TrEMBL record:
Gene: kduI
UniProt function note: Catalyzes the isomerization of 5-dehydro-4-deoxy-D-glucuronate to 3-deoxy-D-glycero-2,5-hexodiulosonate.
EC number: 5.3.1.17
Keywords for this protein: Isomerase, Metal-binding, Zinc
Protein name, per record: 4-deoxy-L-threo-5-hexosulose-uronate ketol-isomerase
């Protein structure tokens, strides 16, 4: 079978505050993505969000999985895709969409036949996938990195100069609740999402890419007054509950893809934690 999945249940902040390193990693780290020839999913009970990947060395079909209890994957869901590998394509109900490096694609509820392909199996596409429950069928739309809404944030002096590329988000694409984008840190900057924040009205997943060989990112999570950290490598993701900060510092600059879902689509809806108040 070319599709595998696992389920992660929601945890309270009180429980997580007592976790050791292994328990924390088992609960929140996703370290099995980008398996060649497979579609891999993690189904979370935070807003029923799903994070996964598809690496087609030959054509791969988007298949439903048991937790969805549906005949097709997108019967009651929407899907966001960002390619972080070689050139490839995603065919949606017979319509082919070519995706180069860092191109994104939104697929709305109700699409039945979705097929992932690589232009060159020796340099396969690496499709990073996020999915959330949907209530309306919005049209499929491709968004290139150049077409993203861009925010330049931070400064070199605070080591957090970065460009936030809002790709699958209101104003660029119509979605039900799924939002995705990509943040690229400038050379010499290592901090992301600092000052840190929480947004109790939605959860989030971070997927770290372009982490140079031999380097790592230390991802910070937890309530602002009770933080924890997870050391992460290239092409690994981490689940961020609504009650948790989501911030990181690398041993070099890097890029990460953020995806989120919940009841509020306002990107600016966040409760900022002052840097000196973090514990």
């Amino acid at each position: 079978m070319s599709t595998t999945f696992e389920t992660r249940y929601a945890s309270s902040p009180e429980a997580v505050s007592k976790y050791g390193t292994t328990a924390l990693r088992d609960e929140f780290l996703i370290d099995n993505l980008m398996e060649a020839g497979k579609v891999v999913w993690v189904y979370t009970h935070y807003d029923r969000y799903m994070a996964g990947s598809a690496v087609p060395t030959s054509a791969l079909k988007l298949e439903t999985i048991d937790p969805l209890k549906s005949d097709t994957f997108l019967a009651r869901r929407e899907l966001g895709i960002i390619n972080v590998g070689g050139n490839g394509s995603v065919t949606v109900d017979g319509e082919k969409h070519e995706l180069g490096y860092k191109d994104a694609l939104y697929i709305g509820q109700g699409a039945k036949d979705v097929v992932f392909e690589s232009n060159d199996a020796a340099n396969p596409a690496k499709f990073y996938l996020n999915s959330a429950p949907a209530h309306h069928a919005f049209p499929t739309k491709k968004v290139t990195l150049a077409e993203a809404s861009k925010l330049d944030l931070g400064t070199p002096e605070t080591a957090n100069a970065r460009t936030v590329n809002q790709m699958l988000i209101g104003g660029v694409v119509d979605t039900c609740q799924l939002q995705m984008g990509m943040t690229e840190l400038k050379s010499g900057s290592v901090w992301n999402t600092m000052p840190a924040h929480v947004h109790d009205r939605r959860m989030e997943v971070y997927f770290y890419i372009e982490v140079p060989e031999g380097q790592s990112v230390c991802h910070f999570m937890g309530q602002p007054q009770e933080t924890r950290h997870i050391w992460m490598q290239n092409e690994e993701a981490v689940i961020s509950p609504p009650w948790s900060i989501h911030s990181g510092a690398g041993t070099s600059n890097y890029t990460f893809i953020w995806g989120m879902a919940g009841e509020n689509l306002d990107y600016g809806d966040m409760d900022v934690a002052a840097i000196n108040d973090l514990k």
